[in-house]
Amino acid sequence: MTNETWGQIREGLINRVGRNNYTTWIEPLKLSQLRNGVALFEVPTSFFGDWVQRNYADHIRNHLVTSGAPVERLEFLVGAENGAVRSVAAKPTAAPRAPVRARAAAEDDLPGAPLDARFTFDSFVVGKPNELAHAAARRVAEGGPVTFNPLFLYGGVGLGKTHLMHAIAHELRERQPELRVLYLSAEQFMYRFIQALRDKQVMDFKSLFRSVDVLMVDDVQFIAGKDSTQEEFFHTFNALVDQNKQIIISADRAPGEIRDLEDRIKSRLQCGLVVDLHPTDYELRLGILQQKAEFYRGQYRGLTISQGVLEFLAHRITTNVRVLEGALTRLFAFASLVGREITLDLAQDCLADILRASDRKLTIEEIQRKVAEHYNVRLSDLIGPKRLRTIARPRQVAMYLAKQLTARSLPEIGRRFGGRDHTTIMHGVRKIEELAATDSQLADDLQLLKRLLQG
Ligand SMILES: Nc1ncnc2c1ncn2[C@@H]1O[C@H](COP(=O)(O)OP(=O)(O)OP(=O)(O)O)[C@@H](O)[C@H]1O
């Protein structure tokens, strides 16, 4: 099999892995050779090869076998600039840690935001929901040749985007102090730009932003709808990419979902690696709590917190990490003030408001409204009797989400969908489950809606 044939058959994987994953991980793979049951792919970086090996190797192998190629295993080689290749197994060599001396010289004139010293890789707890974002951030922080540009991190409030960006900046500054690393929020980018316009110093602004080696812009959704800032951002972005300088961006949603952001910017933002920080799961929350509790134990000497209380908090506070941290901080401060032990009772008293807010239940009406808005259909149609496919499918999506995201029974859901029978709801839920397994667009829609509803 040649690379050309691979190019023709690989599209069959879109349904298995979803379009986004296909574009990011499958399309860039070049089949270098297929011999003795081993398919050898060329990949841009060792990180890339590792990720594909871990997550997509089985899909690719099965697909090759069903397409008639006798493949037993996959191997990945990193394509080097001169055409030579090195095996993915080879550990990437970390850039030597240079002394911190050159740092001030490199960044003296940069108008960035200060970095939070606590936001490092060491203090970032890794779990399934943020595994890829963390790995990608680590890769960028190693420095070396730019492999994906930009790195686009997105996710709901308080899930660690800023933490990861600061961690990259800390690490780069330590490894390569001569690099000009600029971190700022999109809001600060806009104010600096407006200030430059007002002071007639736009050329200075442009040359300053084009002189950095690494640009990090946090919360980029802020510039949506702000036309001249978007324009300037677009030119800065292009100038840096042309110079092969690393850009790291964060936002509260994927580039394609940011309203009022110009299409050309969306498409630029999608060119690199787009990574989602998923809402936390129980294990990750517990891990974060354990790490922070360790820190507080040192601060409030003599004060301890039992595993049971930590588990209780991880179960009950599911909104985001910022709230979780806030709860623990309050608990330690309160216990130390009143001189009491941290018990479950104390936690329930002291955190009553946070626990109540976390208990807020999503309603079926909220789900229906969000789904109607997403598919651009009327709420009354979504609940009503119309059988048109353009309405019936969103209706089934809403039924599916109502079952997944609330504790309501099928008859209860049926009542809220215009008095439908529970078997109709069950049919709708099953239909969406089946379709989502093969229809990547639908799977993406479900993921987005869940995030919006739970965020
Ligand atoms: N995986 C993690 N391990 C340790 N701390 C974390 C983790 N995720 C988030 N945090 C902590 O949660 C708090 C909120 O994180 P951060 O500010 O990075 O969120 P964000 O995604 O940028 O949110 P926003 O969109 O509101 O800016 C920070 O104190 C951060 O250190």
Automatic annotation (TrEMBL):
Residues 147-277 form the AAA+ ATPase domain. It holds the Pfam family Bac_DnaA_C. InterPro entries: AAA+_ATPase, Chromosome_initiator_DnaA, Chromosome_initiator_DnaA-like, Chromosome_initiator_DnaA_CS, DnaA_C, DnaA_dom, DnaA_N_dom, DnaA_N_sf. One of its GO terms (molecular function) is lipid binding. The keyword Nucleus does not apply. It is found in: Cytoplasm. SMART domains: AAA, Bac_DnaA_C. One of its GO terms (biological process) is regulation of DNA replication. GO terms for cellular component: cytoplasm; plasma membrane. Transmembrane segments: none annotated. Residues 336-455 are annotated as: Domain IV, binds dsDNA. It comes from the Bacteria. Oligomerizes as a right-handed, spiral filament on DNA at oriC. Domain I is involved in oligomerization and binding regulators, domain II is flexibile and of varying length in different bacteria, domain III forms the AAA+ region, while domain IV binds dsDNA. Plays an essential role in the initiation and regulation of chromosomal replication. ATP-DnaA binds to the origin of replication (oriC) to initiate formation of the DNA replication initiation complex once per cell cycle. Binds the DnaA box (a 9 base pair repeat at the origin) and separates the double-stranded (ds)DNA. Forms a right-handed helical filament on oriC DNA; dsDNA binds to the exterior of the filament while single-stranded (ss)DNA is stabiized in the filament's interior. HAMAP family: DnaA_bact. This is Chromosomal replication initiator protein DnaA. It comes from Pseudogemmobacter humi.
